[in-house]
Structure prediction request, 159 residues.
Amino acid sequence: MPFALSDIELTSPSFSAHGDIPTRHTGNGKDTSPELNWKNLPEGTKSLAIICHDPDAPLVSPGGTYGFVHWVLYNLPADLPGLAEGSTEGTPGSNNFGNLGYGGPMPPAGHGDHHYYFWLLALDAEPEMPEGLSMWQLLGRIEPHIIGMNRLIGRYRRD
Prediction:
């Protein structure tokens, strides 16, 4: 099942699918994580993880990775129906700003629309993972346990 979309529904009252992410959730605003809600988790889900990635960022790293990671969050309980705006639930991983937790959109000025993929990953295990994992470290640990996933895409631009 890894890396195939499932029936999970991921939504946000902060922005609609493919809609504009409000400034308060960006580096130009309060840099507060948006509210996220989900339903239809696969049977057997024991924990959850969230990743926010901007594939439009003009960055390529050694090893062929691309884009910019804005949020890595894991060790979330399966009975959690969502995250409140600015939530402190779960264990924060490291983002590409070099910080733990959420770092909102802030593309280069004049670079046009960037698309932010908020991924929800359902796991069939409850691995105890330490704070500070990168997106790639997290994926390396959880890949065999992913039983469902889906994403919510938002947009942001800086003129």
User: Anything to note?
Assistant: The radius of gyration is 15 Å.
